[in-house]
Specification:
alpha/beta, Aspartate Aminotransferase, domain 1, Aspartate Aminotransferase, domain 2, 2 domains, 7-stranded mixed beta sheet, 3-stranded antiparallel beta sheet, 11 helices, about 35% helix, binds pyridoxal-5'-phosphate
Length: about 350
């Protein structure tokens, strides 16, 4: 069986496991401890912070470690909303965000916030003009992802960031599917908050980060109050091995096409399908709709691939993917659609 579900999770790279090893049993001291062993852990964490910051053109002090992109997205959106619990306010996002963003917004709507969900075009792209038209006097935040996890579509985040900056509205982007694969510069893109995840880039599960512009002065309300870790934005003892692993994943991220990519393309061209998501997609995510049920069946009979219908998070429910519905696929078309995701690598541009 071939594993082609790398958008759902990647293996941890052997170099990453190696880098993490010593921080489990040998150097296990609490990185907040005021002794030499604490210093050692703190320095290792700082090194990872620098590696990650450099990758996105940020300052090390602006990287807040979390348990993953879901928590980062929750922190970004609730963190802004909770500053405005009394007067409430308006949030703009899209209808094709990851479920952790959509369910956060749904929760905030129950608290009295208002949310506009921008629909994509048939090509899966969010139009910055529509985002602009949705802006109100009480808009607190715009949250639009960078690369869609089901379609691989690359959203025009730089244009949306420009526009948000012009209107002095905070801009957050979920970059779980683009970090390390595409160039990101938070200043060039005018991004105020950016979510990343370890296990989408050959890092360990259970670690991620939120970039927060000027984090030390940020008014963001923490979700986990604690002992002042992560400049007070995320309490809890910093998990040294996981953080070192995230840093190592960034360092060792591959920048080449593998044998798996070539063998995939040779096999898939034997079938009749259309690729969803138009022109602007990353090369490692293929969302395809087979021409007919018979063709889908032939593929399933001949190829025993580990792939997804929709995202992994939807797999347990019988409802068609909200992303495929949003780009206009019928329930019947969604049933013969699959997401094939190949090993991630740095896309040269
Ligand atoms: C995987 C993923 C997430 C969730 O990341 P975790 O680190 O597993 O919480 C969020 N957004 C997107 C776009 C993803 O692909």
């Amino acid at each position: 069986m071939k594993y082609y579900d790398f958008s759902a999770s990647t293996p941890t790279a052997i170099e990453v496991v190696e880098a993490m090893k010593d921080w489990h049993c040998d150097s296990f001291a609490n990185p907040s401890a005021a002794h030499v062993e604490g210093d050692k852990a703190r320095i290792a964490i700082q090194r990872a912070r620098e590696t990650i910051a450099e990758k996105i053109g940020a300052m090390p002090s602006e990287i807040i470690f979390t348990s993953g992109a879901s928590e980062s997205n929750n922190l970004a959106i609730k963190g802004v909303a909770f500053q405005n619990l009394e007067q409430k306010g308006h949030i703009i996002t899209s209808s094709i965000e990851h479920k952790c963003i959509l369910n956060t917004c749904l929760f905030l709507e129950k608290l009295g916030f208002q949310v506009t969900y921008i629909n994509p075009g048939k090509n899966g792209l969010i139009d910055p003009k529509q985002v602009k038209e949705a802006i109100r006097h009480d808009t607190l935040l715009i949250s639009i992802h960078h690369v869609n996890n089901e379609l691989g579509v690359i959203q025009p985040v730089a244009d949306i960031g420009d526009m948000a900056f012009e209107h002095e509205i905070l801009f957050h982007s979920d970059a779980a599917q683009s970090f390390c694969k595409l160039d990101i510069d938070v200043d060039d893109f005018n991004i105020d908050m950016l979510s990343i995840s370890g296990h989408k880039i050959y890092g360990p599960k259970g670690i991620g980060a939120l970039y927060v512009r000027d984090a030390r002065e940020s008014e963001l309300v923490p979700l986990i109050h604690g002992g002042g870790q992560e400049v007070g934005l995320r309490g809890g003892t910093s998990p040294t091995p996981l953080i070192v692993g995230l840093g190592a994943a960034v360092e060792y991220f591959p920048n080449n096409v593998s044998e798996q990519h070539i063998s995939f393309e040779n096999v898939i061209k034997e079938y009749k399908f259309v690729r969803n998501g138009g022109e602007k997609t990353i090369p490692t995510t293929w969302n395809i709709t087979f021409e007919s049920d018979e063709e889908a069946k032939r593929f399933n009979d001949e190829q025993n691939w580990l792939i997804s219908q929709g995202s992994a998070c939807n797999a347990m429910s019988n409802t068609p993917s909200h992303v495929l519905s949003a780009i206009g696929l019928s329930e019947e078309e969604a049933r013969r659609s699959y997401r094939i995701s190949l090993p991630p690598f740095k896309v040269m541009n």
